[in-house]
Amino acid sequence: MEKGYLALVLHAHLPFVRHPEYDEFLEERWFFEALTETYIPLLEMLEGLERDNVDSCFTLNLSPSLCNMIADNLLRERYVKHLDKLIELSEKELDRTRFDSRFQPIALMYYRRFTSTKDKFLNSYSTDLISQFRRHQDAGRLEIITCGATHGFLPLLSLNKDAVRAQIRVGVNSYRKFFLREPLGIWLPECGYFEGLDRLLKDEGIRYFLLETHGVMFARPRPKFGVYSGYYTPNRVALFGRDHESSKSVWSSVDGYPGDYAYREYYRDIGFDLDYDYIRPYISPCGNRVNTGIKYYRISGPFNQKEPYDRKIAMDKAAEHAGNFMFNRQKQVEYLQPTLGRKPIILAPYDAELFGHWWFEGVDWLNFLIRKICYDQDTVKLTTPSRYLKIYPKNQVINPAPSSWGWKGYYEVWLNGSNDWIYPHIHRAQERMAEAAKRNRGAEGVKERVLNQMSRELLLAQSSDWAFMMKTGAFSEYAAKRSITHLHRFYQLNDYLERDVFNYEAIEDIERKDNIFPEINYSAYSNNT
Which stretch of DSSP H or E encloses residue 263? Predict the structure, then answer.
């Protein structure tokens, strides 16, 4: 009989990047890499669990912007072309390494992975990954939750509650469209919480959300069971807090499993290592070297003295680390259960892209972990937040503390000297959108199209990814350009609306470029709908 529960939560999100105005666009590779290295491997893992009748369950957030990219026909076509290039490159690598016994097995591994991925995507999944994830949810292997529509950082949008409500409402509506049911929970973008957010969540039918550790620990009154139980807000929305110990095992750059010397080195890629003329057809359209996804080394040693990657050694280490993680959760539960007087829940949330993309063996580790928990012990049982609430429906009422899971735990990552310039413009646009939605209730024809597209542009401008990139400096120019572009398009459309003079060609061009949420209704910005 289990003494406690482990709730694994994977947060899968990418900003909406789609550029039909170009034949090929560098930043679309983020999506293609995540499909190849994370999302399709996760589906393959779920298929293996299904085949072997493993009684497993975990929580997966597929953000609305990511779902819209997965469902987009243009991006699907471009992904197949991307895979074709990878297969072509891996074939060349098989020839290049044919006399090198250190690298030939690795080159063969990549060739088989890429060809298998293409076959799965086209033939097994018919390019429709959403329906595959939905099937696993319907079978009980997954609990899929929603997110803010474009991952807007809600605390910094909260000057206008209609804007926050729209992020939640559009996210919920998108979930209904893709998964044909109501979402039970929500991943708050960046786990960002502000006082009063729970009321807006309740209004949209959300049953629970997840917080960073101190969002629970600094709550009022003090939480009786720490982060090892569910709680309710005053508005009867449940919440759960992240467990620090299980997080550190995976996230820590010093102590975390992904840094082990047996694992593949992310930063040694043939896109940078090989001769430029050889690699030129497979890198950025403008000729800049980029990661191709083919990497031959493991983490061991200094950058230029690393050892060749050994898949068997890496798999043995992943199994060992899965066993260690399970053992630590067993000991945690054995201590907590008698101390708390109830079976604890250990919430372990991670970015999904860590598994497979940044940590190449991460999906294998997850597969080993799920199987070990199901077969090798009976102290810890896998669960989801909603299942735990069915076991313990009565919980303490607390007021969560403002918090996020970003650096320093609050809002500084998304509001600092590198990105603070965007917020006056976003806040002004939010006010304009709410006013336009209320002033034009029941609009039809071109006015309705313009209002709906204004909603899309505002949502895209609000994405927390742009502020995050500006802070880190990675792709900061692209992030700033995206912020400016969406705000410019918003005001261009608003000007048409106010003057009652419409440039149909320009409207169609914007609709073609920013086609996220085709089902959107601008009334999401009217608080009485």
Answer: none
Q: What angle do CA 322, 325, 328 make, to 5 degrees?
A: 150
Q: What is the CATH number of the domain that holds 486?
A: 1.20.1430.10
In whole angstroms, how far apart are CA 69 and each of 162, 355, 516? 25, 20, 8
Are residues 254 and 390 both part of a single domain? yes
Tens digits of residue pLDDT in 505-520 = 999 999 999 999 999 9
For residue 291, name the pLDDT band (cuts at 50, 70, 90): very high
Tokens linked to 495: 């000007």
H/E run at residue 378: none
Say yes or no: 443 and 370 in one domain: no
- Report whether 259 belongs to an annotated binding site: yes
Give the contacts of 59 (CB within 8 A, at least 6 positions apart): 7, 8, 9, 10, 142, 143, 144, 145, 185, 384, 385
Does the annotation list 473 as a binding residue? no
Radius of gyration of the chain (CA): 24
Tens digits of residue pLDDT in 147-162: 999 999 999 999 999 9
Catalytic residue, from 37, 162, 190, 269: name it.
Answer: 190
| Among 379, 408, 437, residue at a domain's last position | 408
| pLDDT value for 529 | 44
Residue 102 DSSP one-character state: T
- Same-domain status, 440 and 360: no
**Structural domain range at position 336:** 4-71+128-264+309-408
How many domains, in total, are found in the chain? Answer: 2
Q: Write phi, then psi, for 225 (nearest 5 degrees).
A: -110, 20
Is 216 a member of any domain?
yes
Question: Which three-class secondary structure string do you get for 141-172?
Answer: CEEEEEECCCCECHHHHCCCHHHHHHHHHHHH
Where among 349, 382, 408 does a domain terminate? 408
Residue 101 lies in a domain: no
| Residue 115 within any structural domain of the chain | no
Among candidate residues 44, 334, 351, 448, the one labeled active-site is: 351
**512 marked ligand binding residue:** no
Query: Do 393 and 421 belong to one domain?
Result: no
* 301 has pLDDT over 80: no
Percent of the chain scoring above 70 in pLDDT: 100
Active site residue 190: yes
Q: How many residues does the chain have?
A: 529
Is 351 one of the annotated active-site residues of the chain? yes
Q: Is 405 annotated as a binding residue?
A: yes
Distance (Å, whole) CA 391 – CA 394:
9
Q: What is the pTM of this model?
A: 0.97
509 is a domain residue:
yes
Q: Say which residue the tokens 């070990």 belong to.
A: 372
